[in-house]
Amino acid sequence: MKKGVIFILISMSLYLFFLTNDLRSSEKYPSKPVVIVSPFTPGGALSTIANLTGKYLEKHFGVPFVVENKPGGGTVIGVTYVVNAPPDGYTLLCAADIFTSILMGTATYKMEDIRIVAQISLNGCSLSVRS
Fold this sequence. Notes:
By secondary structure, the protein is α/β, with parallel strands linked by helices.
């Protein structure tokens, strides 16, 4: 197993441990399918990452982790969907660049509405010019 996959599983396991302790529930988590929302179109890099992560989490936890793509609005549609979902841990967001919408004032949410639980990938960006 690659180091990145192990990191993802450890991060999600820690998140789920703390989430279940926060809920103070005797119910086993997850006890039903979990939705991972990707605010981009299917087939792109982030959608692929969400699908791969979902497959590993499904294997680890024994319940379905289903990816739903909700593209549009520069991620605002998908992020808003997750922000408005019940805070029970059954709707997760796999996103990148959700801050631009906040900075531009087009977001329907604030950073305080989102709890970041794990970094599952790191993509480098650069701004280049001809020498």
